[in-house]
Amino acid sequence: MRIDCDVLIIGGGPAGLCAARSLLGTGLNVLILERDPFLGGQLLKQTHMFFGSKEQYAGTRGFEIGQILTREVQASPNVTVMLETVASGYYPEENFILALEKEKKLYQIYFKKVIVATGASEKSLLFEGNDLPGIYGAGAVQTLMNMYGVMPGQDIIMIGSGNIGLIVSYQLLQAGVKVKAILEAAPTVGGYFVHAAKVRRMGIPIFTQTTVKRALGQNALEAVEIVNLDSKWQYVAGTERKWSCDTLCLAVGLSPMSELLWQFQCEMRYVSELGGYVAKRNAIMQTTHPDVYIAGDVSGVEEASSAMLEGTIAGFAAAKALHKMLDSVDQVIQNSQKFLDEMHRGPIGEKIRNGLAKVEVDVCL
Amino acid sequence: MRIKEHPIIDYQKGKTVTFTFDGVPYEGFDDEPIAVALYANGIKTLSYSLKYHRPRGIFCCIGNCSSCLMKVNGIPNVRTCTQRIEQGMVIETQGKGVKK
Ligand SMILES: Cc1cc2nc3c(=O)[nH]c(=O)nc-3n(C[C@H](O)[C@H](O)[C@H](O)COP(=O)(O)OP(=O)(O)OC[C@H]3O[C@@H](n4cnc5c(N)ncnc54)[C@H](O)[C@@H]3O)c2cc1C
């Protein structure tokens, strides 16, 4: 079946929802495709309170932010939401997106502008036995315990001391799961000091320059062999030891889900600071394909606060391109850009700044 | 195992449904994915890999990685981390009994 819309938004996480919110009241016909049965993306698993400024919902828990944005967007007459619908491919000859609803119904979706906000997928680690049941990404552990109230395990070891590793360790304790230790390959803890201090206070040790070498178990994980690393990230012989555990949680980063952007033939670049291949874009989140905008983790893995700002910018930019803008649109875009710049300031934002410097270009408009 | 009490989250559960896994009946809630309902019943191994017959469970649990594919109502390769459980569903381990 054929559907026509003005602005197509792929992905209903914080980035996609904020893009839709920018388009409320413009009279433009907006369509959101979301493969899950609900809107909110990764936000729905975040039980902790957010940092940042009031505009970025500081002090509100992640899942509540997801609910607030969902309500705003669903109440709007010019936005249609298709749930359980996957955008599965772009067909350049006819310029449509093919979407599959509930594994049954196919749609050809024609659009004037598209905002790709598909998020990111979790990375794994290379070690012997890494495919055993019991070894999960941090997002999976959060899904089980925070969305569905199911215990991920009894006895967990966490790999990665970035903010996600630290926060999920804390959430595991809240759910009553024992976290044996957090292992970190680097010489220093990756996440914010406050998060690290909190988990240490709760009695979880963090071992730096330590990683997992092997996973052991018959039908599921029973133990891991861990090992120390030297300053060149090599195993230190003789330091191997076996720790029992039924769950190993990998919090080792995410990579942007940029498949659709390759199909749109956007100019792509591998930028390790941003998690993988990302599309080049200008300050209003437009890619080298003039009708394609990006926002959120797919444009570079960062956090929900930046995803919301990028979504806001991309939404307004698409409205402006279709001449459905408020008089103050440039002002509004600049405001969001200012907040983003503030987030990227200082030593904490250095990595992202370096990454963005490699993909921000003055294209099209 | 289900979390009984949580300091922050008030879990909203759907309707209780019964389904079978490899012929044995189990219960779950109709608003949770198949893999989650199985996990709550202590079932972690969902399939065996084709070539080496290695056990497989969930990995990403958000529909990206295809580590959770199972046979559902006779249809193979169903993504059980996103597909909801339904009353009377017949769930089977995928690749069981395949020769090494
Ligand atoms: C454990 C953890 C803790 C975190 N803690 C924080 C924190 O404290 N503060 C913070 O700011 N950020 C935090 N983040 C990061 C934050 O959750 C993400 O940066 C943010 O959700 C990214 O938003 P997004 O909209 O780009 O992607 P997502 O939230 O991933 O949303 C993308 C959406 O697109 C959908 N989708 C993907 N592909 C398709 C397709 N082809 N068709 C249809 N739909 C599709 C997905 O189902 C999903 O709903 C955390 C992340 C994790 C994993």
Description:
- The complex is a heterodimer of chains A (365) and B (100).
- Chain A has 365 residues and is α/β, with parallel strands linked by helices.
- Helix content of chain A is 27%, strand content 25%.
- Chain A has helices at 14-22, 62-74, 138-147, 163-174, 193-201, 259-263, 304-321, 329-343, 350-357; strands at residues 2-4, 7-10, 30-33, 79-82, 85-91, 96-101, 105-110, 113-116, 120-122, 135-137, 155-159, 178-183, 206-207, 210-216, 223-228, 241-244, 247-250, 254-256, 268-271, 276-279, 292-294.
- The model of chain A has no long low-confidence stretch (mean pLDDT 94).
- With 100 residues, chain B is mainly beta.
- Chain B has a domain at 30-92: Ubiquitin-like (UB roll) (Roll).
- In chain B, strands 2-1-7-5-6 form a 5-stranded mixed sheet, covered by helices on one side. In chain B, strands 3-4 form a two-stranded antiparallel sheet.
- At the A-B interface, strand 10 and helix 3 of A face helix 1 and strand 4 of B.
- Bound molecules: flavin-adenine dinucleotide.
- The site of flavin-adenine dinucleotide has 37 residues of chain A, from helix 1, strand 5, helix 3, helix 4 and helix 7.
List the keywords.
heterodimer; A: 365 residues; alpha/beta; FAD/NAD(P)-binding domain; 2 domains; five-stranded parallel β-sheet; 9 helices; 21 strands; globular; B: 100 residues; mainly beta; Ubiquitin-like (UB roll); five-stranded mixed β-sheet; two-stranded antiparallel ribbon; 7% helix; 28% strand; binds flavin-adenine dinucleotide
How many separate structural domains of chain A? 2
Strands of the widest sheet of chain A, in order across it, are 4-3-2-8-21
The largest sheet of chain A, given as strand count, sense and whether it forms a barrel, is: 5 strands, parallel
Oligomer: heterodimer
Shape of chain B: globular
Number of helices of chain A: 9
* Beta-strand content bin of chain A: 25-35%
Number of strands of chain B: 7
CATH classification, class level of the largest domain in chain A: Alpha Beta
**Count of individual helical segments of chain B:** 1
From the alpha-carbon coordinates, what is the Rg of chain B to the nearest angstrom?
14 Å
Question: Mean pLDDT of chain B, rounded to whole units?
Answer: 93
Largest interface (CB < 8 Å): A-B, 32 and 35 residues
Structural class of chain A comes to alpha/beta
Please name the fourth-level CATH homologous superfamily of the largest domain in chain A: FAD/NAD(P)-binding domain
CATH overall fold name of the largest domain in chain A: FAD/NAD(P)-binding domain
- CA-based gyration radius of chain A: 21 Å
Distance between the termini of chain B: 32 Å
